[in-house]
Request: fold
Amino acid sequence: MSSPQVSVLVVEDDPGIATQLVRGLERAGYSADSVTMGVEALNRPRTDVVLLDLGLPDIDGIDVCRRLRRSSDTAIIVVTARGEESDRVLALDEGADDYLVKPFGLAELLARIRAVLRRGRVTGGETLRHGSLMVDLRTRKVLVNEAEIALTPKEFAILECLATDPGRLVSRQEIVERAWDEHWYGPTKVLDVHMAALRKKLGDPALIETVYGHGFRLADT
Ligand code: CA
Reply:
């Protein structure tokens, strides 16, 4: 049996783009619908994901984002033609989970949706346990053999990527995108420094397994 369908609301005043997005999402197995006004988006029942255009005819998209976030835990991906960094920062600060600049491909959009859904599954104070390791996502505390270890925000973010789905091979690029910036296009070399520090603090060098040329995963304990 397939899992329950994930619902996506497209908030987009350009009917051509909206139709294309809804079709693409439906083909990918999502239940999708669209509205053209910010006020309609705010009055709709909650969907799992909202794709939010920032340039709307009635309310500014940033404002819609802020109000949506205040009332619900829906995943918000801002979709816009505005490419300035200040807009991206503003949208993320107002609660957007991710940001896509037009034009973008459907494959990228689908990947972003999968990523926010993965992250969404572990919000809300969940505790991740893996062998002697315990990661509390709400308090951001990490314990190894019941002893708390102090991690920097980056180290915590890297560990969170791995501990969310122990055993899954997580690519270097995915870790960098999730732990640094959604739009990091630079080299992933910077990851190695933080990874080395994290391993040292965890105490057991075998806990994080390196898969050369691919990425990392949490080893079986
Ligand atoms: Ca628009």
